[in-house]
Design goal:
368 residues, five-stranded antiparallel β-sheet, 18 strands, 27% helix, 22% strand, binds flavin mononucleotide
Length: 368
C-alpha cells in the first residue's frame, strides 16, 4: 500500500501539487471521535507558509469532510477529507520534466513512473501533499488527548543555531502550539529566522533538526522486531519529504557513552515504574516503557534553490545547467513541524489500535 500508512488505522493520501484537489481517506477509525474542525484548521495553519521565510504560494486549505462524519462525530466508516488546490502556477515547472532538479524527486519520479508522472509543482512528491496528512492527524488528535497523550515538536537546531532543550513537556507543548515558528528560546528564534532570510537572499536554503516528544503513552506498545515502536514511528516520519535522519533518545550520541552512562536506572515511587534518565527515548526492545518518547528528525535544506546547478537533459542525454524559477521555501523545517507532529499522531494511533482495538480511540470512559 504505497500511499497508505497504518496496519489498523490506515491513512491514504492522494493528489498532486497542481491537480484539482489533494486529500486523504482514513479507514479503520473508531466511531464516536468528536470532530473538531477548529483543530484541523489550527493544525493546517501551522503547516501553511507565512512571511519572508516561506514560499510565496498561498493556499487557504479550505477542506471539506465528505464522508464518515455524522452529527459531529466519526461514524466508524471511512472518513474522506478533500482540499482543493487554488494557487497554482504550472508554467514555472515546464523545464523540469527534461531537466530534473538536484536533490528533488524529479529524476526518481521519471525512473518509477516512466515519464507519466505529473511534474507540475513536484506533483505527488510536493510538500503540498503533506496538508492532507496534517488534516487526518488533526481529526484523530482529540481521541489521543482524551487518553492523556499529546505530541510536540520544536526546531532544536537550524544551520548550527540551537534552541533550548525541552524542560516541562506540558508547558513547552502549550508554548509551541501557538507558534508558527516552533522555537522555545526567543533569542534562538531571531537568529534562526535571520539565517533563513540570509539564505533566501543568496538564492539558497537551510535545514536543521526537529526534536519531538510523544507524551503520555502507556507502556507495552510495539513489537519486538519488525513492528517495533521505533520502526512504526520512523516509517511514518521518513514518509515526510525532506527528512533524511531519525534518532531516538540519545541516538547517535550512544556511540560516545559507556554502558554505565547510557543505561537508564529503573525506579519506583511505590506506585509506578519510571527511569531516572531517558537515554533510550521511552522505548526498549521495540516496546514503550512509559517514559516520554523522544526523537529527532533531520530536515535537509530545501532542494529547489535559485543558484545555477548542474543537472542533465534527459531528452538529449547530455550535461547541462538549471536555474530554477517558481515559488519555494528557503527552509521547510518550520512547516515540516506540523507534518512531523501529524505523522507521530498517526503512528501512535495505529500502534494503540493494533494493541487495544479500534474502539480504544472512540467511545470510552474518558470522552463519552
Ligand atoms: C511542508 C514541506 C514543504 C516543502 N516545500 C518545498 C519547496 O518549496 N521546494 C522544494 O524543492 N522542496 C520542498 N519540500 C521538500 C521536497 O518535497 C522533498 O525534498 C522532495 O520531495 C525530495 O524528497 P526527499 O528530500 O525526501 O528525498 C517540502 C517539504 C515539506 C514537508
Amino acid at each position: 500500500m504505497k500511499n497508505t500508512f497504518g496496519q489498523s488505522l490506515a491513512v491514504t493520501v492522494f493528489g498532486e501539487s497542481h491537480g484539482e484537489m489533494i486529500g486523504t481517506v482514513i479507514d479503520g477509525i473508531a466511531p464516536g471521535i468528536p470532530v473538531d474542525t477548529e483543530n484541523i484548521k489550527r493544525r493546517l495553519a501551522l503547516r501553511r507558509p507565512s512571511g519572508k521565510i516561506s514560499t510565496s504560494r498561498r493556499e487557504e486549505d479550505e477542506f471539506s469532510i465528505v464522508s464518515g462524519v455524522y452529527q459531529g462525530y466519526t461514524t466508524g466508516t471511512p472518513v474522506c477529507i478533500l482540499i482543493p488546490n487554488k494557487n497554482t502556477k504550472s508554467s514555472d515547472y515546464s523545464e523540469l520534466a527534461d531537466k530534473p532538479r538536484p536533490g528533488h524527486a524529479d529524476y526518481t519520479a521519471t525512473c518509477k513512473y516512466h515519464g507519466f508522472q505529473d511534474p507540475r509543482g513536484g506533483g505527488h512528491f510536493s510538500g503540498r501533499i503533506t496538508a492532507p496528512i496534517v488534516a487526518a492527524a488533526a481529526l484523530i488528535e482529540p481521541a489521543l488527548r482524551a487518553r492523556g497523550i499529546f505530541v510536540a515538536t520544536h526546531i532544536s537546531s537550524l544551520y548550527g543555531i540551537s534552541d533550548r532543550e525541552f524542560s516541562d513537556y506540558t508547558l513547552d507543548a502549550s508554548i509551541l502550539s501557538e507558534k508558527t515558528f516552533p522555537v522555545l528560546s526567543q533569542e534562538s528564534e531571531e537568529r534562526m529566522r535571520s539565517a533563513i532570510e540570509s539564505a533566501a537572499e543568496e538564492g539558497d536554503s537551510v535545514g536543521g533538526i526537529l526534536e519531538s516528544v510523544i507524551y503520555g503513552l502507556p507502556s507495552g506498545l510495539g513489537d519486538p522486531y519488525f513492528d517495533s515502536l521505533e520502526s512504526t514511528i520512523s516509517h511514518a516520519v521518513f514518509s515526510v519529504p525532506g527528512i533524511k535522519g531519525v534518532e531516538f533518545g540519545s541516538g547517535f550520541g550512544f556511540a560516545s557513552l559507556k554502558g554505565s552512562a547510557a543505561n537508564d536506572a529503573i525506579m519506583t515511587d511505590g506506585e509506578r515504574i519510571y527511569t531516572s534518565t531517558n537515554h533510550n527515548g521511552g522505548i526498549n526492545g521495540g516496546i514503550s516503557n512509559g517514559m516520554p518518547v523522544i526523537l529527532r528528525a533531520a530536515v535537509k535544506p530545501t532542494p529547489s534553490i535559485f543558484k545555477q546547478q548542474n543537472t542533465v537533459s534527459l531528452e538529449k542525454m547530455e550535461n547541462t545547467t538549471l536555474t530554477i524559477s517558481g515559488r519555494h521555501d528557503p527552509a521547510i523545517i518550520h512547516r515540516a513541524r506540523a507534518v512531523i507532529d501529524a505523522t507521530l499522531i498517526l503512528a501512535v494511533a495505529d500502534a494503540l489500535t493494533v494493541r487495544y482495538g479500534t474502539d480504544y480511540l472512540g467511545v470510552n470512559d474518558n470522552n463519552n
